[in-house]
Amino acid sequence: METLVLFLQLAWTFFVIGALTIGGGYAMLSLIQNQVVVEHPWISEATFTDIVAVSQMTPGPVGINSATYVGYNVLVNATGSQVLGVCGSVTATLALMIPSFIIMLLIVKFYQKFKTSKLYAGTMDWLKPCVVGLIGAAAVILMFKTTWADGVPSVQVVADNFPDWKSWLLLGGAFVAGYWGKVNPIYVILAGAAAGIVIY
Fold first, then answer.
1. Is 13 left (phi over 0), alpha (psi -120 to 50) or beta?
2. Which of 18, 97, 167, 184 could pair covalently with 162 via S-S, beta carbons 3.0-4.6 A apart?
């Protein structure tokens, strides 16, 4: 019974995320993190960061990949069964995709009619900065943890994600290589993996 409830919670959580997220997978990460780490403490902050890293390196949209890995981790941690873990992956992935699929069908049907509308253009102009903000929020959430005491925020670096100065050095090197050096992200990932193996 508890396992069934967990499946239903997982399905509903990712269905809502899929229905409310605008801006693709990266904008979705902050919502996923809030639901699976904070609201439902199914996995730890460090595990979620690992899931995001693997999701970015594997083929496919990062949001869907994250849902797949989260669904697997949640069910394996709760039941110890890899079979149920795979079922959790399927549940979370489908629940995330169904709202987008339905919404896109409706958009395709009405897009030709409304694409020249000023209201449509204005809505898109307002949504673009919101998407950038959501993507930025996802990055900040992975780096920092904010706690509140008597209305005063306390910001701390998530130690599991940046355990030492070498982690910060790798982060800085990857940023410089990608942003200013315009290095292919695949090479940055491979170099990061090699450096991690050598250093740790």
1. alpha
2. 167
**Torsions phi, psi of 157, nearest 5?**
-70, 135
Pairing of strands 152-157, 144-149: antiparallel
Residues 146 and 174 occupy one common structural domain: no
> pLDDT by residue (tens digit) across 39-56?
888 888 878 888 888 887
Q: How far apart are CA 77 and CA 129, in angstroms?
A: 37
> Hey, is 44 helix, strand or coil?
coil
Q: Bigger pLDDT: 80 or 160?
A: 80
Q: Record the tokens describing residue 48, joined without a space.
A: 């979620």
| Rounded (10°) CA dihedral 26, 128, 147, 169 | 50
At 50 the three-state DSSP class reads: helix
Q: Which of 62, 66, 61 is nearest to 43 (CA)?
A: 66
Shared domain for 41 and 115, answered yes or no, is yes
Number of domains in the chain: 2
Q: For the ranges 37-41, 112-116, 187-191, which has the lowest average pLDDT?
A: 112-116
